[in-house]
Amino acid sequence: MGSANLEPETGYATVFSLRIQKAADAWAMPASEIMGNVIAHELGHLLLRSASHSFAGVMTARWDSMTRMRDLLFNRRQAGAMQGQIMSRARKPASADVLARQRSTIPRSAILAEVE
Predict the structure, then answer these.
(1) How far apart are CA 15 and CA 2, in angstroms?
(2) 3 state SS of 105
(3) Which of 24, 35, 46, 109 is deepest in the core (most CB within 10 A)?
């Protein structure tokens, strides 16, 4: 329902709203609950700088109709690693060339792909 590009300077996350809506319809649950967890999951990949998944919690690889969306959490190790990433990024400002690369990294077609 989402993906993350883990490039060190220009990484980004994509959330597929149509897939989320299909899952919400199939699982009879609010799309907003699923979307919030998908966003958290993909940001987790970016902040953890890892494509790996966990056996439980928000970083689980697959969810289904039995997943209690409101109970999905990051574990303590993940939370600490993400806090460390946020603190280290806050200490060093991005240079102008990094910002320009970030803007040009996400193809416009990717942004518009889900708007149908």
Answers:
(1) 4
(2) helix
(3) 35
Amino acid at 53: H
Contacts of 97 (CB under 8 A, 6+ apart): none
Tens-binned pLDDT, residue by residue, of the chain (116 aa): 999 999 877 889 999 999 999 999 999 999 999 999 999 999 999 999 999 999 999 999 999 888 888 889 999 999 999 999 889 878 877 666 666 666 666 555 554 444 43
Q: Name the domain count of the chain.
A: 1
Sequential DSSP letters for 15-40: E-HHHHHHHHHHHTS-HHHHHHHHHH
What is the three-class DSSP state of 62?
A: coil
Cα 105 to Cα 73: distance, rounded to the nearest angstrom:
30
Per the CB < 8 A criterion, the answer to whether 60 and 72 are in contact is yes
